[in-house]
Write a structure and sequence with these properties.
Length: 458
């Protein structure tokens, strides 16, 4: 892995490793049943990750626009839920995995419902359930919802829309079948016009990462700060994504990646890690299920490397808390060692920094630490010659997620390469496996060790 230029480049550097390793993977074929989709660069590849503070990390072709296609289904489903409620939506659309392809002709026996909102049949009904005074108004509201999730105004690729409209006979057959079964009550042609337009909206890998992060952030877009939908709606959407979003690969996907996700035949893939980040990937070569080959492999590698499976996190553990200790120590918490630490910190303010971590430290917590530390390093007086010394107080950390261990280790290595010193205060003695990372049994010893180090450098 290349050496990051700045602390915040640590995540980008790892995305670069995953990206570069998969460039030689040319398995799969681009979608050609929609003629316009066949005319793309097959080897394009982008990976973007958006944290819950709005920072986006990117590798490869993340600014290359492509049509959202079936990835739109998850976000239009959120709008239908907000408009008429979960019970009304699922009176007309099921919630069960189909175990079949995205365009399968399959309706529930006895009700005529499509199996779930992620297959084409279910998505067509879901689109029809969105409130709108006219088809134009309905699509306007859908485009507004997609744009709000992405954090910018999105547009439609007119040529792809025309191509979808001309080649959409299978979707027309599905719509007429559901119309006869009673699950679709709206006009077929008007509904499909809206559906084809929503699939033709242009996005980038970066957009998908922000959209996934908005779901993972309980409906608040981390880039704009705007609430797009409720946390409850996000919970419903991510549940359906986890069980149905990858079609007939959904079970194996959940087993291997463990993240709510949705794929699209243009090559886009969005995944959400609740409470942590969103992931957006693009590579147009598809596997047998219609998902991006590289996108699936990249997401699985990230999930496996960082322990991101949604069932991996113990639900009983407290949420991450990361704070610079300066103000807390200044206020005085009653402990003699805190008073001593506050004095040492004040005496070495330009060269010594202390951060306290509490609870379950995951990607979001580790990222906050890295960005806070980077800001502190940039604020140091430019004439300081002595290298910085950083104390990480892990005393009240209940558990370090795999991704947090890796990020803290990368942080320590980055600092060590620049002559800085990182000291971890951890009574449990958890080793991050990094040469140059000092460990102390208690907080007082760690701060004293750090103060001695800064004095020796003066």
């Amino acid at each position: 892995m290349r050496t990051p230029a700045t602390l915040s480049d640590i995540v980008t550097a790892f995305l670069d490793v995953v990206h570069d390793r998969l460039l030689s993977d040319r398995r799969g074929d681009v979608a050609d049943y929609i003629p316009e989709l066949a005319d793309v660069e097959p080897d394009a590849f982008g990976i973007a990750l958006c944290g819950l503070n709005g920072r986006v990390y990117e590798s490869g072709d993340t600014d290359l626009a492509f049509t959202i296609q079936s990835v739109s289904k998850a976000f239009v489903y959120s709008l239908a839920l907000d408009d008429i409620g979960m019970n009304a939506v699922h009176h007309r659309v099921g919630a069960e995995p189909s175990g079949e392809a995205f365009n399968s002709v399959k309706l529930e026996s006895g009700t005529g419902r499509p199996p779930n909102p992620m297959v084409n049949a279910g998505a067509i009904v879901t689109t029809a359930l969105v409130n709108g005074a006219s088809p134009e108004h309905r699509f306007e509201r859908i485009l507004e919802r997609l744009s709000a999730f992405a954090g910018r105004d999105l547009t439609v690729d007119a040529s792809v829309f025309t191509s979808e409209h001309a080649s959409g006979d299978r979707n027309r057959a599905l719509a007429y079948l559901m119309r006869s079964a009673g699950s679709l009550t709206a006009d077929v042609n008007e509904t499909l016009d809206v559906y084809f337009r929503q699939c033709s909206v242009l996005v980038t890998s970066r957009d998908l990462a922000v959209m996934g992060a908005t779901l993972g952030n309980g409906g608040v877009n981390p880039v704009t700060g705007r609430r797009v939908t409720s946390a409850e709606t996000c919970q419903h959407v991510m549940t359906i994504m986890a069980t149905c979003g990858m079609y007939d690969y959904a079970g194996e996907w959940l087993l291997r990646a463990g993240l709510p996700a949705k794929s699209g035949v243009a090559g886009g893939l969005v995944a959400a890690s609740p409470g942590e980040f969103g992931l957006g990937l693009y590579s147009p070569r598809l596997d047998h299920s219609g998902a991006s080959v590289r996108g699936v492999v990249a997401a699985q590698q990230l999930a496996r490397r960082f322990g991101l499976h949604i069932l991996h996190r113990p639900l009983s553990l407290s949420a991450a808390e990361v704070t610079a200790a300066t103000e807390e120590l200044d206020e005085g918490l009653g402990a003699m060692q805190d008073a001593d630490a506050a004095q040492l910190l004040a005496e070495n303010a330009d060269d010594l920094a202390v951060w306290r971590l509490r609870g379950y430290i995951d990607f979001d917590g580790a990222e906050r630490l890295i960005l806070d530390l980077e800001e502190w390093l940039e604020s140091r007086p430019p004439d300081r010659v002595a290298p910085a010394v950083i104390v990480l107080d892990l005393t009240e950390v209940t558990q370090l997620q795999s991704v947090a261990v890796w990020m803290l280790a990368a942080l320590a290595s980055w600092c060590n390469e620049r002559g800085m010193r990182v000291i971890a205060s951890d009574p449990q003695g958890r080793s991050l496996g990094v040469a140059g990372l000092s460990q102390a049994a208690d907080f007082e010893a760690a701060v004293q060790d750090a103060a001695d180090a800064t004095s020796a450098d003066d």
